[in-house]
Specification:
The protein has 541 residues and is mainly alpha-helical. The protein folds into three domains: 194 residues, Orthogonal Bundle (Fumarase C, Chain B, domain 1), CATH 1.10.275; 244 residues, Up-down Bundle (Fumarase C, Chain A, domain 2); 62 residues, no CATH class. It is built from 17 helices and eight strands. A hairpin with a 2-residue loop joins strand 1 and strand 2. Helix 10 packs antiparallel against helix 11. The longest helix has 37 residues. The radius of gyration is 32 Å and the shape is elongated.
């Protein structure tokens, strides 16, 4: 029922208190710091009772999951929890607008959701594997250690869990319900009223929802945010490669195939290829949003919308779109959107392509450094036993990130195919893998972009590699043909052999043989970078 505004805050809830023993301290009404240890409340579910520290915002469902799932040893990704809080806020506001939830309760849930978003925003800057977050026992301490607001530790649940994400959904429901109760109690005490009844995790926070529509929706919101970050990182990398392309546009080096010298080309052309690949990654990853924007919010258990009011179903997605700023749209066939997650497999393929390009670029740069064409910035000592040794550690880290991301994408796609009938039970694995893959390509792209900016061409080494390599004769094919060029190479090799291998380098010999003007023109950066060689030379030229 909607509030009229006349009744005091202590009378706003008509729903029964969920799972709380009479007289037990409510989790939202947080005690003062320094209160005595040992204060508990008792909560009940269909399996029985459990004592929970009075100041713990989590409830019995979360604590059972903490005991059940100890697999990955790391928590659910912060980005997913952040997105889930926004979904819950949208649902609470939609229920209030359509008259199904008291506006004061909806406002308290929304404020609690904002706190959760802020808490998880702080976690996004940290490693998802931060040791300080590993709290499998699930305790934020006794009543004397609980902070007033929501903290990231409130959402510590193992990333790999059964139940299609139900434990994460209930974790969010319970934390927001407890905190919303606390917020209402604070307001009531300030106004001189008795505290309200407890905000219920299921009857209020989860009203007209199911894990099966909120979890996929939250995952898509989280993936859109991550995909935007990956696209921005790809753009940074593209810009770094383009800057290096311009810087090295006139540096001639040896192009290589099969790790063997092939034909002369410019370093700028090599960097241009890397820039183009990063540009494709930027575009593809940005376009992921089109695959992710359709959500099944309001579909409840199997996509039919059973138990949810029609007005709420339409309004919830509209509000979530406004909250996120993303172009979200309600799925026209929510049964399909609930049962099938092939869009996530498609996104996994796109992210895997970006990871492959990252590994390829880093590997090529490492090889160019080994050939001596470029000089990598020294970022740390390379050996504990060899003084002065510097290794290409940034490139090696990038290669590893690409390998790991591709593996995570393959795992996500595999989990998409393991869903059965009306839901995908393995979305927690999809979420953990795909969000990790996006973090990896984003972080690696930014790291590599910084590194590329400080790469320097080794012009002398590049020139020497071209000058001493008879493969440069390939550039003269349009003038002399295959047989003629082969004859030139054999003649040079004979001259070297006759001189004990100590003859001048190939370019010097070629300049003396054909004339420096012709050799300089054919092997110039402009000629080597041009598209084709122009008109067919006249006979005898």
């Amino acid at each position: 029922m909607a509030r009229t505004g006349a009744e005091p805050p202590g009378e706003i809830l008509a729903a029964p208190v969920h799972g709380s023993s009479t007289g037990a301290p409510e989790p939202g009404a947080l005690p003062e710091r320094g209160a005595s240890r040992g204060a508990y409340r008792t909560e009940r579910d269909l399996l029985g009772e459990m004592k929970i520290p009075a100041g713990d915002l989590r409830g019995i469902h979360t604590h059972r999951a903490l005991g059940n799932f100890r697999v990955a040893g790391r928590p659910t990704r912060p980005a997913l929890i952040r997105a889930y809080a926004l979904v819950k806020k949208a649902c609470a506001l939609a229920n209030a607008e359509t008259g199904w939830l008291d506006p004061g309760v909806a406002e308290a849930i929304a404020r609690a959701a904002d706190e959760a978003v802020a808490a998880m925003d702080g976690e996004e800057g940290a490693s998802p594997f931060e040791p300080g977050d590993l709290m499998p026992e699930g305790s934020r301490g006794g009543a004397d250690t609980t902070p007033a607001g929501i903290a990231a530790a409130d959402f510590w649940l193992d990333a790999l869990q059964g139940g299609a994400g139900t434990s994460t959904n209930m974790n969010v429901n319970e934390v927001l319900a407890s905190r919303a109760t606390g917020l209402l109690s604070e307001g009531a005490r300030a106004a001189g009223f008795p505290g309200p009844a407890r905000v219920d995790p299921l009857a209020h926070v989860n009203l007209h929802q199911s894990t099966n529509d909120t979890y996929p929706t939250a995952l898509r919101v989280a993936l859109i945010a991550k995909a935007r970050g990956a696209a921005e990182a790809a753009a940074l990398l593209q810009g770094a490669f383009q800057a290096k392309e311009r810087e090295t546009a006139r540096v001639v080096t040896v192009g290589r195939t099969e790790l063997q010298g092939a034909v002369p080309m410019t370093l700028g052309a090599i960097f241009s290829a890397m820039a183009e690949a990063a540009g494709r990654d930027r575009w593809r990853t940005f376009k992921c949003e089109e695959r992710l924007r359709v959500v099944n919010l309001g579909g409840t258990a199997v996509g039919t919308g059973l138990t949810a009011p029609r007005k709420y179903i339409f309004r919830a997605t509209e509000i979530l779109r406004a909250l996120t700023g993303y172009p979200l749209a309600r799925a026209e066939n929510a049964v399909d959107a609930t049962a099938n997650a092939d869009a996530l497999a498609e996104v996994a393929g796109i992210v895997a392509a970006q990871a492959a390009n990252l590994s390829k670029a880093a590997r090529d740069l490492r090889q160019l450094a080994a050939f001596g064409d470029i000089e990598l910035p020294a970022v740390q000592a390379g050996s504990s036993i060899m003084p002065g040794k510097v290794n290409p550690v940034i490139l090696e880290a990038t290669i590893q990130a690409g390998m790991r991301a591709r593996s995570e994408c393959a795992l996500a796609a595999e989990a998409v195919g393991e869903g059965t009938l009306q839901i995908n039970e393995f979305l927690p694995l999809v979420a953990d893998s795909l969000l990790d893959a996006l973090d990896l390509v984003t972080n690696a792209s930014r790291m590599l972009a910084r590194h590329v900016r400080d790469i320097r061409p080794n012009e002398e080494a590049c020139a020497a590699a071209v000058d001493r390599n008879p493969i440069a004769a390939t550039a003269f094919l349009p003038l002399f043909g295959y047989e003629g060029v082969g004859g030139l190479v054999k003649e040079w090799e004979a001259a070297r052999a006759g001189n004990g291998g100590g003859a001048e380098n190939f370019r010097e010999w070629l300049s003396r043989k054909l004339g420096a003007e012709l050799v300089d023109r054919v092997l110039s950066p402009a000629a080597l970078s041009a598209l084709g060689h122009g008109e067919k030379p006249k006979e005898g030229k």
